[in-house]
Specification:
Layout: H1 2-69, H2 86-91, H3 102-127, H4 132-139, H5 143-154
Biased composition (Basic and acidic residues): 77-96
Protein name: Swarming motility protein SwrB
Region (Disordered): 64-99
Length: 155
Amino acid sequence: MNGILTFASILLHIISFYFILLLFMKVSSLKQTKNEQESILEETEQLLAAFMLEQREEHDRFIGALDRNSAPGKAEPIFEKKGESDEQAVHEDPLPKHLKHAEELEDSIEWTSRALKSTDEVVTLHEKGYSIEEIAKQTDKGKTEVELLLKFRQN
């Protein structure tokens, strides 16, 4: 009887050591995963910080360019007055109600036609064998914009 109890005790010890080993391996893999996630998080934070810094620098350059382009002391009016009061303009509307947005439509049509001409020019240059960089220089567009125009035109 004593032998059976000793055998059972040894068997239970082996099984418990096996489960302890399994738990240790599981905890180790969880720690490794946690460390990997922390490193990925740190890398992502660094990338976002670099991106935000780049955006801030671009914003500052843009504001600086706007400040240089605007003359100091001269405020440019956004809307020009044509010499008539607001009441006269309301009462003397030259367009009927159903055509009030005609001027806006003409502007959008003109803009769309310019964009289509620009796209056609890019496609024509591409068909002639110009590289994307050359097309971008000739049309005063960015390389990415030229690539997108060509991709959209292919589809």
